[in-house]
């Protein structure tokens, strides 16, 4: 982190709508708060497996609540999350490993594109649900929307299956677990030489308070 700026790491996976909310708020506040925001693409499936966590919507009552909650949060934070009952099942049946490896390859190649690229994946997953029909977004159209050249996209796609990218994603996921993450988004603020973990997109006021913002 730059002198006097608090390093804030955001561990996220594009399968998580709450991660999208947290991502958008932190992307806005990085220009207001004295923070150095570092986006850390990780794999939610790996975190769930390692910690024995289950998708919250598997509990029917909680699933009902989440539908309302995400709609309210989306309206409040002005993030275009669109969600209906069938979406949870559809999304849980889809692995984002490929998408998160693609985003990781971008992080390793041109991290400046990380924010727009991640946002485009969320838009495909959680905003343009109708065009999805239960398949993963096509990386080429997502990348084009994010402003990437087809050459760069091709290069990233070739990197996806490389040990370097697989290991980087695994290491980032393990790092999140080491900080105590059990779900996403996991936000880690490094303040006064200590990491402070905040889970979820509804703890950002608390994060601000802890770091003196």
UniProtKB/TrEMBL annotation:
Annotated Gene3D superfamilies: Glutaredoxin
A GO cellular component entry from the record: mitochondrion
Range of residues in the leader sequence: none
Active site location: 16 (nucleophile)
InterPro entries documented for this protein: DSBA-like_thioredoxin_dom, GST_Kappa/NadH, GSTK, HCCAis_GSTk, Thioredoxin-like_sf
Enzyme class of the recorded protein, top EC level: transferase
GO term, biological process aspect, one: glutathione metabolic process
Source species, domain of life: Eukaryota
Keyword entries, A-Z: Transferase
Chain ranges of the DSBA-like thioredoxin domain: 8-210
Pfam families associated with the record: DSBA
EC number: 2.5.1.18
One Gene Ontology term of the molecular function aspect: glutathione transferase activity
Reactions catalysed according to its record: RX + glutathione = an S-substituted glutathione + a halide anion + H(+)
Sequence similarity: Belongs to the GST superfamily. Kappa family.
PANTHER family: GLUTATHIONE S-TRANSFERASE KAPPA, GLUTATHIONE S-TRANSFERASE KAPPA 1
Name used for this protein in its record: Glutathione S-transferase kappa 1
Provenance organism: Phaetusa simplex (large-billed tern)
This protein's encoding gene: Gstk1
């Amino acid at each position: 982190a730059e002198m006097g700026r608090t390093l804030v790491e955001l561990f996220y996976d594009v399968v998580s709508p709450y991660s999208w909310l947290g991502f958008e708020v932190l992307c806005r506040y990085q220009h207001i708060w004295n923070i150095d925001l570092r986006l850390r693409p990780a794999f939610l499936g790996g975190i769930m497996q390692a910690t024995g966590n289950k998708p919250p919507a598997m509990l029917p009552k909680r699933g009902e609540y989440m539908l309302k909650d995400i709609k309210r949060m989306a309206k409040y934070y002005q993030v275009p999350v669109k969600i209906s009952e069938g979406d949870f099942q559809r999304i849980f049946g889809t692995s984002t490993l490929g998408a998160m490896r693609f985003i990781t390859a971008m992080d390793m190649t041109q991290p400046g594109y990380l924010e727009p690229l991640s946002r485009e994946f969320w838009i495909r997953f959680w905003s343009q649900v109708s065009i999805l029909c239960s398949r993963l977004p096509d990386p080429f159209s997502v990348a084009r929307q994010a402003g990437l050249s087809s050459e760069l996209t091709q290069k990233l796609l070739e990197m996806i299956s490389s040990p370097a990218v697989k290991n980087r994603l695994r290491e980032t996921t393990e790092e999140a677990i080491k900080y105590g993450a059990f779900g996403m988004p996991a936000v880690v603020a490094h303040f006064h030489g200590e990491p402070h973990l905040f889970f979820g997109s509804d703890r950002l006021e608390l994060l601000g308070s802890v770091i003196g913002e």
